[in-house]
Design brief:
There is one protein chain. The protein is an alpha+beta fold. It has a domain of 184 residues. The chain contains eight helices and nine strands. Strands 1, 2, 3, 4, 5, 6, 7, 8 and 9 form a nine-stranded mixed sheet that branches. It comes from Candidatus Sungiibacteriota bacterium. Keywords: Membrane, Transmembrane, Transmembrane helix. This is DUF3352 domain-containing protein.
């Protein structure tokens, strides 16, 4: 009987199966399948990458908002810095003067440049202004500074601007800003100073030790008036049980140099008439 042709669907098994042949067949099939999977994944990623835009609208919007936020922060810092620079200048301005040490019936506020001519001119202008006799007027003096503001005139700057030597121990003992005044007496305006001292007794001793030069040193206190000089020494005058030192320069119009140590409040007073000294003592007792 003739042999029939082989069935094409029939796979011929190898005559002898071994572990080696099985492993070889497994590797061939598994490598092929894994390789095909990798190829498909690579194609999918390539197609996805080509179709996906470089940046999504959400990411672009986020980046833009972040950039605008940085710009806003920088602008805020610049505005804050500029505002701080602009508002720093008026801080130098001192608005309210210190509380008065005694009762003054009037107050005049002037602002000057830091020059002798400005200070002397301000003292003379205020003294020549119309005011009733008997007025004890406080003079608040401010000095303009380079920053555009002003500060109150200190005792040390007062003597330096007048270009006169201050008695040693006076400036060092000043506990606060001096208070200048114009006393409008029977014979015209008279200038003076009152200030609180750390050690008023020592400040008084400093004045006492410089009595021989006070006529020269305090010449600007006379507001431009020609005042005679004298070789007479200072003497003691007592008023209401308070003694003060006084040098008479012109008895006819009550011009002189007086200074006082008032221990109850550690006050030092310098004035240019006997009437002024008496009025200041009255005010000191009134404020005790």
């Amino acid at each position: 009987m003739a042999d029939s042709p082989p069935d094409p669907q029939f796979k011929k098994e190898p005559g002898l199966r071994t572990m080696r042949s099985d492993v070889s067949e497994f590797l061939k099939t598994s490598k092929a399948s894994q390789l095909s999977v990798l190829i498909q994944e690579a194609k999918r990623e390539t197609s996805d990458r080509g179709e996906r835009p470089m940046g999504s609208p959400r990411r672009l919007a986020g980046a833009l908002l972040a950039f605008l936020g940085v710009l806003a922060a920088l602008a805020g810092l610049l505005v804050y810095y500029w505002t701080a620079q602009q508002t720093a200048l008026p801080v130098v301005q001192e608005n309210a003067p210190p509380a008065p040490l005694i009762f003054f019936s009037a107050t005049t506020d002037v602002t000057i440049a830091a020059h002798r001519t400005d200070l002397v001119g301000a003292l003379q202008n205020v003294s020549q202004a119309d005011a009733p006799a008997g007025t004890l007027e406080r003079l608040v003096i401010r000095v303009r500074n380079d920053a555009g503001g002003s500060s109150f005139l200190s005792l040390g700057d007062f003597f330096r601007m007048l270009e006169v030597a201050s008695p040693p121990g006076i400036i060092e003992n000043a506990a606060a800003l001096p208070q200048f005044f114009i006393q409008r007496g029977r014979f015209g305006p008279r200038f003076g100073i009152i200030f609180e001292a750390h050690n008023a007794a020592r400040a008084f001793e400093a004045m006492f030790s410089r009595e021989s030069s006070l006529q020269r040193d305090l010449e600007p206190f006379f507001l431009g008036r020609a005042v005679p000089t004298t070789l007479q020494p200072f003497g003691d005058i007592t008023y209401k049980n308070v003694s003060f030192r006084y040098l008479t320069l012109d008895r006819g119009d009550d011009t002189g140099i007086g200074y006082l140590y008032f221990p109850a409040r550690s006050r030092i007073i310098i004035a240019t008439s006997e009437e002024s000294m008496r009025i200041i003592i009255d005010r000191l007792f009134e404020t005790r």
